[in-house]
């Protein structure tokens, strides 16, 4: 796609005159002032073209956005005029092309940011925290959920359950917390606090943290086998569905099997999603490897749906770890359970919800925690590679337009389970409602941590007299993960065959 000029280029001109008293001509340059409204404006529309072409073909709501209609522009000239009239790519995307009910399409001017994000790689200090309001005010406080291993925070005096109320000496509130915690500063100092008698008060403690490039989080955070009565309970805390972690998950379940685990508590309380293929493998490790059983089905916009075979929409349970991202295609060490206990909260979304919904037609899923985010949609990463259908393929990075390094990850599908259920846009409601208590977050993986303790109680029937009263519930307004929509993903592998579709190039 070429550059376009909104007006002709007007230049000054040179006047040559001769003075009869001199032998040499005198060159006098006369510069003509160009009116401001006639100053040429160069509009590069390559990014806009990439956005429109991608969404016109793949976007789930393509039929609901008038400017994405196939017949919206009858000639190449009218199409280019439309793009040129929208010179700012982000404004163009958000105001012209995205459906009003779309909460989860996102983008970056560097597609590698999105690639790294899906692999659990980020620029981070390793502190994962939630943010809540102090009482009925606009004042904000943060509390530590967990700390990424081998991060800057892991080497500092800070741990799960601690709280903070300021950054660099400035108290947090609804207006400033985004700039203070998620702004451009790579280093900041937290002003810590304590909770006494349900009152949050500052203390004389500061913790300085520095973000580091390329921090990779191990999604397998805690695994334990807990013996309670005659039960052997496997506890598995998984924080992101990362492709390439399947062999490691399989090894965890092999250990569960070797120790005679009879029940499983799957902790997804801070897991906002990730790869659909990874979710399929986790579900198979829990329920079993009958490859004729449907886990979930994807539906697309009308244009794609009419052309896609069921082999590209139906996703079944699997029997091996597969070969994605270095996995060994090993047979799965499935527990073959008829019931599973899943801890999920308002920080659980997408692929986490898919595991819960996909398992329900086959086994009893006991959801402990709070209502989840509600993301029943799948996405795919696109780059400006028309010959590859604009679908990101790591083997085709040399084919990406060097002038357009943007990545676009739009919603392209809706998911439903084998019973046809997909109505959870408002979140999945727990069977046993129990908020995290900021005054008593406990130690993750410890049998006394409240949400795990409640699951153990449900499994064994032991400890019925224990109180699970919550003093200060963790009602998040945001978190280190939730503030960035890129974290709430159900990222589909390329289930749409792009070879049979062509981008809508105007003539």
TrEMBL record:
Keywords: Hydrolase, Protease. This is C-terminal processing protease CtpA/Prc, contains a PDZ domain. Coiled coil: none annotated. It holds the Pfam family Pept_S41_N. CDD domains: Peptidase_S41_CPP_like (cd07561). The keyword Transmembrane does not apply. Residues 118-172 form the PDZ domain. It comes from Maribacter orientalis. One of its GO terms (cellular component) is outer membrane-bounded periplasmic space. GO terms for biological process: proteolysis; signal transduction. SUPFAM superfamilies: ClpP/crotonase, PDZ domain-like. GO terms for molecular function: endopeptidase activity; serine-type peptidase activity. InterPro entries: ClpP/crotonase-like_dom_sf (IPR029045), PDZ (IPR001478), PDZ_sf (IPR036034), Pept_S41_N (IPR041613), Tail-specific_protease (IPR005151).
């Amino acid at each position: 796609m070429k550059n376009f000029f909104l007006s002709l280029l007007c230049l000054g001109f040179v006047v040559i005159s001769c003075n009869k008293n001199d032998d040499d001509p005198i060159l006098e340059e006369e510069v003509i002032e160009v009116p401001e409204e006639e100053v040429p404006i160069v509009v590069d529309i390559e990014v806009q073209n990439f956005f429109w072409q991608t969404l016109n073909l793949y976007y789930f709501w393509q039929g609901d956005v008038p400017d994405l209609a196939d017949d919206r522009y009858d000639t190449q000239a009218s199409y280019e005029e439309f793009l040129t009239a929208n010179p700012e790519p982000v404004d163009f995307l958000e105001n012209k092309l995205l459906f009003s009910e779309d909460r989860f399409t996102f983008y970056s001017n560097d597609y590698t940011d999105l690639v790294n994000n899906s692999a659990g790689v980020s620029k981070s200090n390793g502190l994962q925290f939630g943010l809540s309001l102090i009482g009925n005010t606009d004042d904000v406080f943060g509390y530590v959920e967990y700390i990424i291993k081998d991060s800057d925070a892991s080497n500092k005096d800070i741990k799960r359950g601690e709280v903070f109320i300021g950054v660099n000496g400035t108290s947090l509130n609804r207006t400033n917390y985004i700039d203070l915690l998620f702004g451009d500063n790579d280093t900041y100092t937290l002003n810590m606090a304590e909770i006494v008698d349900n009152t949050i008060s500052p203390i004389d403690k500061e913790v300085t943290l520095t973000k580091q490039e390329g921090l990779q989080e191990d999604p397998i955070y805690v695994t334990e086998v807990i013996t309670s009565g005659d039960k052997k309970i496997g506890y598995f805390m998984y924080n992101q569905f990362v492709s390439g972690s399947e062999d490691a998950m399989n090894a965890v379940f092999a250990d569960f099997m070797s120790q005679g685990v009879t029940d499983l508590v799957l902790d997804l309380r801070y897991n906002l999603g990730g790869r659909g293929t990874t979710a399929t493998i986790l579900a198979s490790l829990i329920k079993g490897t009958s490859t004729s059983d449907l886990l979930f089905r994807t539906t697309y916009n009308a244009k794609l749906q009419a052309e896609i075979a069921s082999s590209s929409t139906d996703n079944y349970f699997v029997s091996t770890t597969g070969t994605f991202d270095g996995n060994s295609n090993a047979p799965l060490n499935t527990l073959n359970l008829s019931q599973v206990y899943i801890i999920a909260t308002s920080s659980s979304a997408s692929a986490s919800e898919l595991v819960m919904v996909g398992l329900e037609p086959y086994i009893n899923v006991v959801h402990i925690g709070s209502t989840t985010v509600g993301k029943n949609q799948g996405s795919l990463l696109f780059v400006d590679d028309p010959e590859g259908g604009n679908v990101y393929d790591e083997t085709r990075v040399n084919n990406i337009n060097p002038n357009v390094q943007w990545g676009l990850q739009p919603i392209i599908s809706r998911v439903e389970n084998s019973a046809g259920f997909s109505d959870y846009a408002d979140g999945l409601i727990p069977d046993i409602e129990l908020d995290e208590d900021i005054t008593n977050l406990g130690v993750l993986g410890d049998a006394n941590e409240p949400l795990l303790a409640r699951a153990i109680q449900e499994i064994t029937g032991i400890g019925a007299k224990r109180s699970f009263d919550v003093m200060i519930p963790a009602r998040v307004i945001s978190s280190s993960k939730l503030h960035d929509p890129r974290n709430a993903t159900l990222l589909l592998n390329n289930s749409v065959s792009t070879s049979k579709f062509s981008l809508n190039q105007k003539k």
